[in-house]
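new request in #modeling-help
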Amino acid sequence: MALPIGSLAPDFTLLATPDQKVSLSEFSGPVVLIFYPADWSPVCGDELAVFSAASKFFSAHDAQLLGISVDGAWCHEAYREERKIAFPLLADFHPKGEVAQAYDVYRDHDGTCERALFVIDREKTVAWNDVSPLGINPGADGALRALEALS
Amino acid sequence: MSAASLATAVGPHDHVTGPKNPTLTLVEYGDYECPYCGQAFPIVEKIREHFREDLQFVFRNFPLTDVHPHAEAAAEFAEAAGLQGKFWEMHDTLFQHQRHLDNDSLLRYVTDVGADVDEVTRALAAGDVRRRVEADFESAIRSGANGTPAFFVNGTRYDGSWAYEPFVAYLEGLLATS
């Protein structure tokens, strides 16, 4: 499970806000994809808060953080505002879970996605990945170390 | 999954209570304004009381300032009071009053714990305490601290429940096998 290290990262275009789309291909630097099951769920809040707080360590490597869940753009907007999350939350909403499926982290049985992290390098190759148990927040250390290993 | 472990070993720079050569070392990365850390505070007190000479407790700063606007100032005040040997007094006071962490309240707590306000103010202006909080914060991120509070037992992140009963049971288990 989870698109393996060394794979070409599938491009995608998703809504980041109700009227603004974001594509993987528009980032020239490394990208950290943070797949999480759902806005407003307890563990996800902590996970995103930690990444948000750590965002300056990621920007030091020119890396872009992107959160992705199957929630819609309006829900993301409210959630992002309420939790003051420093990076975009992308809506893998329609067709539902398409990007999660492309990265092989969709949970078919409950319609959400795994708690998964991908570090994608400048060549758009998966450099590192991690899937945590749903109830366990992974922290930002693994993704940060993977990024540091790139440079 | 990566095993999260302390990126910065417990050392002389840390705020430590308990024995010098303990069987158990409990490190908390905490935020004075976080309600969960507030709930954990009396639990940690009870755990320290329970294990006494077997457990060392270390507190490091992990202020999540996006969601807790007073957390950074509170952390810096505790560190500044710490320069006068009043870290734990300030730490306890902040958790006991975590809904009132505005600047005036923080200054009042300095007096309450018996630290000198002018000295604290100077220490805050000098910036050393801010750098100390930042260093703690970075070590939290690099250690895989995954929220507030984040606990590490003997260097490894503890992902279980920190409610008193399960936490004590876990620590008892470690003690029994050590």
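bot summary: Chain B is about 50% helix and 15% strand.
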